[in-house]
Amino acid sequence: MPGLPVWLFWRVSILINLPNLLTPMTTYRIAVVPGDGIGPEIVPLGWEVLSRAASVFGFELQATHFPWGAGHYHEHGCFITEAGMEQLAEFDAIYFGAVGLPEVDDTLPARCYTFRVRNTFEQYVNHRPVKLLPGVLSPLRNKSQEHIDFVVVRENNEGEFVQNGRMLRPDKPEGLATDTSVFTRKGVERIAHYAFQLAMRRRKRLTNVTKSNTLIYTLAFWDRVIEEVAAHYPEVEYDKMYVDNASATFVLRPEHFDVILTTNMIGDILSDLGGAIMGSLGFGPSGNINPEREYPSMFEPIHGSAPDIAGKGIANPIGTIWSGALMLEHLGQQAAARAIEQSIAATTQQGILSRDAGGRASSREITDHILQALSTQSATA
Ligand code: NAI
Ligand code: MG
Hints:
381 residues, alpha/beta, Isopropylmalate Dehydrogenase, two-stranded antiparallel sheet, 12 strands, 18% strand, globular, binds magnesium ion
């Protein structure tokens, strides 16, 4: 403002900027649940990266820690309390490690914590990117970054994992057990819409991985509903593949895939195979998403609590850190999410890798490189 005396200039500019100065910084309240095994080692590292991203990109993350998991069950008789479930509902998102310990009955962790949260908060999408990072050697000979870049969209609330069954007289000769899958039209339609919309934002190709040639009721219904939804997305190239063939295709021609839409159990198995072709299970991120945002979504690495390597400081923290990036994306902080992903890539590209991926770096060293890359990135952004 030429011609204004300096003192008046400052007063005018303070007045003009007053709304910005008075607007509080966007704050997200995050429930942090490290869980068991390697969870309490790598979730805090992931949180350091998230906090750095928040300070660089100008928003605030507030963590509240919860002790839920098999360790809590061991001491107090439950994985999570009723009040704990109600508390979780109040957060913007949940940042989770994994649950399960060798000394605790392993039929409990999914039922008592993971599935309970996924179902109660209608996190019906399990979004699992499979992407080879630079500097990481895939166990697939001749496959590189341009061949391995897809997303497994796994139905997360129904299907084979509804735990609807019985075990009768298991110790007797006449012993029997059942598990009955449940597929609903509403459940299949909503996951299909999510997957097709994701395909529209990517390379516009969707593969339904199914087994309707043998599961002739549930998965034939699954295919039928998906094909009805496919008609709403004519731009997306749609194909159907049986899971046995899909498993082989993961290994032989992963470049076939862009978005995979599949059931709860098939998605569980295929996403570990996805982790394997990325070079280690320790790289895989995931989001358990409630797209309507009525409830908090939960972000966790695809691996479990890895008790065999817990306490050594050698776990690969990248799946957990990358899951944090998915969380920021869900919260609307796209630039910060991209910056974390680029910092992960910059780190692996330099060959800073943990033992599971053929390197020698500790969880701490990898995180420090990611933090440093994040600072450099933001300085140049
Ligand atoms: P897991 O994923 O914990 O481990 C499988 C193998 O991969 C192990 O050799 C482990 O050392 C390795 N691994 C996993 N994550 C790694 C990382 N970040 N860095 C380096 N190596 C890593 O699966 P497992 O052994 O079948 O299950 C162990 C426990 O975790 C069980 O109690 C299981 O129920 C639980 N689990 C929990 C999940 C969850 O909370 N969402 C998911 C899967 C398993
Ligand atoms: Mg799994």
